[in-house]
Each structure stands twice: as C-alpha cells, then as structure tokens.
Specification:
There is one protein chain. The chain is of the alpha/beta class and 119 residues long. Helix content is 29%, strand content 36%. A hairpin with a 2-residue loop joins strand 5 and strand 6. Helix 1 runs parallel beside helix 2.
Length: 119
C-alpha cells in the first residue's frame, strides 16, 4: 500500500513576483518530506506572492499541515505572501479546526480571508 502514496508538485512562474504551486495527490508522513523539499527550493524574495493550489489534493494529515505552516512562515518572514486556493471542504475543515483558517490567507468559495497574526 505504501507505493500508492504520491504527491506531485508543479511550479508556474506568472511573473517576477508571483508564482503558483500546483500540488496534487496525498500529503502525509510518507510524502510530506518530498513536498517540503520542493517548497524549500522556491526562491523567496521580498514581495513575492505564492499561491498554493490544492484543487487536486485528495488527503492531508498533520504532517502535511506542518509542512504548509512552515512554508507559510518562511514566505511571510521573507516579506512575501501565500494564498491557499482550491481547498476541498475536507481540507478547509482541517485548516478551520486547527485555527489556521483564522491566520492564513485561504480562498474559500470565491472569498478570501487574510490574517498574518500569530504564526
């Protein structure tokens, strides 16, 4: 069963200040290290805007959540911004019950919430 776990990542550079990272598959203890490595390879600059697109993420556990939070903190510390888009209701619930939806910029059904405090 372990071979069925997979996460894929594609980075699209929109312009010098904006990139979209398309994430798909499952983000868990097996795949989170791969995603962490790929996110850490993104060059962070002041005012960079990164969208993490989760439209094709079918599962995320607390390990994956930790990777996303660490990346978010790194980008904010560098003076940039991260927006999470395309979260399924299940993924949004995960961010909501952990309180991260109150802190992170998450686009939800056509509306966005933003708050960088407390991370």
């Amino acid at each position: 069963m372990e071979g069925d776990f997979n996460v894929d990542f594609k980075l699209e550079t929109v312009n010098a200040q904006k990139s979209i990272a398309y994430v798909n598959g499952e983000i868990d203890a097996f795949t989170a290290p791969k995603l962490r490595e790929q996110l850490n390879n993104i060059k962070l600059t002041e005012s960079i805007q990164i969208e993490l697109d989760f439209h094709d993420v079918v599962y995320m556990d607390s390990t994956g959540l930790g990777v996303i939070v660490a990346f978010y903190k790194n980008v904010i510390s560098a003076g940039g911004d991260v927006k999470l888009i395309g979260l399924s209701p299940r993924l949004y619930r995960l961010f909501n019950i952990t309180g991260l939806s109150d802190i992170m910029n998450i686009e939800e059904e056509g509306k966005a919430t933003t708050n960088h405090e407390g991370i």
